[in-house]
Amino acid sequence: MRTSNKGPWEMVLITHGFPNQIAALRFEWSWQHPKRSRRLNQLPPKKSREKSFDYCLRVLASMLNTEPWSRLPLTVRWLNPDFQQDFHLDPPLHMPMVQGPVKSVKPKKPSKKALAAAEADPVISDEEDDLVCNLCFRSVTSATRMDCLNPRCRTVSHAICLSGAFLAAAGELDQMIPIQGSCMTCSSVQQWGDLVRRRRGCFKNIQDISVTDEED
User: Fold this and answer.
1) What is the pLDDT of residue 215?
2) For labelling alongside 200, which of 21, 106, 137, 149 has CA 20 to 30 A away?
3) Domains parsed from the chain with CATH numbers
């Protein structure tokens, strides 16, 4: 949320796990302008004696249970757990509520040696040509490819095939984007947003800060 110049401020809570920056910015705008958002304009306005902090959390609680945000694989993180016991957000079951600080992790760039080896090795392109969707059994290209998140499972699917399978299993054929589903091979339950983030190369851009990190 935006702040005024009356600080200092303490960050209490963050919501992360958006599939891309646009989704995060739209969520932020609606949180800042609930009266102007067509999905939130039915919420009761801020009460005269209600603190702004309490009102913001009340709006957040409603957003987490309102589509399309309720279908995203979000994580609600209390940076200051002292406040958590006073507020009950009750997000959907697939949204975990966690505690503790985090830090942003920049993805590692491949070395020049690794890039040169990849360009010189024709086996990579040959393997990609041989990939077959485990649902429709047709060839899969890098543009349409979805990989199972289980590192021990090498299942590959078309994004559209996997989405349809997840929606059918959940009985949500009227939806376009699934919330989660199980891999047809290893049966591991996976969030759709995590699959999308991994495909876009930003699957692990946030990690918990350990006690050692905080001391450093």
Assistant:
1) 44
2) 137
3) 13-104 (no CATH), 112-200 (3.30.40.10)
Burial 15-53 (b: 16+ CB within 10 A, else e): bebbbeeebbeebeebbeebeebeebeebeebeeeeeee
**pLDDT-wise least confident of 71-75, 125-129, 173-177, 197-201:** 125-129
Q: Average pLDDT for residues 66-84, to the nearest whole number?
A: 87
Positive or negative CA dihedral for 75, 81, 82, 84?
Answer: positive
- What is the three-class DSSP state of 206? strand
Among residues 120, 51, 109, 126, which one has the least CA distance to residue 83?
51
Give CA–CA dist 182/161, Å, rounded. 13
**Would you state the pLDDT for residue 129?**
55
Nearest to 61 by CA among 81, 85, 43, 80: 43
- Tokens 């949320």 correspond to 1
Distances (CA, A) of 28 to 63, 80, 81, 179: 11, 20, 22, 21
Whether 85 has a pLDDT exceeding 80, the answer reads no
Tell me what percent of the chain is helix, strand and coil, each rounded to the nearest 5.
Answer: 35, 15, 50
Name the pLDDT band for 123 (thresholds 50, 70, 90).
very low
Q: From residue 4, give the alpha-carbon distance in Å to each of 1, 73, 97, 195, 208.
A: 10, 30, 27, 37, 28
What is the rounded distance in angstroms from the CA atom of residue 83 to the CA atom of residue 12?
7
